[in-house]
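Notes, Module 5: Reading structure tokens.

Key idea: the token line is not a picture. It is a compressed description, and you learn to read it the same way you learned to read a sequence, by spotting repeated patterns. We will look at two proteins. The first is printed below with its tokens.
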Amino acid sequence: MIYPRAGVRIPVELPVEIRWKSRVGRQQQVKGTTASISGNGMVMSVPRRLRNQTPITIRVMLPSEFTKVPLELVCRGRVVAKPAGFGGFGAIIDDYQLRPVRRSA
């Protein structure tokens, strides 16, 4: 299935952490970087391929140079694309929250 783009993609590389459950229900995690972000999705460069429609949680650390306070973007979405020749995948964002980053002591 092809999903039409509903917004402008912004090319940006930010640290990203993706979590999902394996077919047997084990929590999985991988780190990578964003390649581009739009209002309803993102493309990420990660060392792992996931099945189409896999539900995922995406955590993006936003640079405090722009946000003035440490913030993270936490998204719930699903895998929808595996661009040819690209080591990663695209995802549709179904829901998101901006959260303050908790500083460790």
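Here is the second protein, with the sequence above and the tokens below, as before.
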Amino acid sequence: MRSDIVRIEKGFALIIALLILLVLTLIGISAINTTTFETSISGNERVGTDAFYVAEAGIQIGLNQLPDTTRIWVPKGGILGKDSSCWSGSPLDQSSPKSLKSLGVYPPPIGTDPSVWEFKRFQVDTTGSSFKATKEIEVQVRFGPFPVGTQYN
């Protein structure tokens, strides 16, 4: 009787080993797929972050030129790098960037004489493009003080 049981169980270890190898192979394939997917996500995030920083550079250019409200346009290969460009306006305005917006006079802070000093409010919209990603940023800024009656927009 004992020898019959041993003969029946002879191939059982091989079947268990093959099943374990199958499970480990499936885990390995799943890990490779997950790694590939995560790599593409991190690459897209990096490109998007680059486009955001290019748009931020456009904001800084716009803020530095205030109270001048002329358009901003930095072509590819300009100061931002060979694959990056920025312009004022939305992503649709790349071929014809828009001027910065003057939003008029802003109430002066408490303690400032409004008959002598005034503050202007501006809106700077820029879009940055890096590789194939674009990001748009909008900033409103109070700028001044200016003597009342100054001809800035």
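Summary for the second protein:
- The chain has a mean pLDDT of 88.
- The beta strands are 73-74, 84-88, 101-106, 117-130, 133-147.
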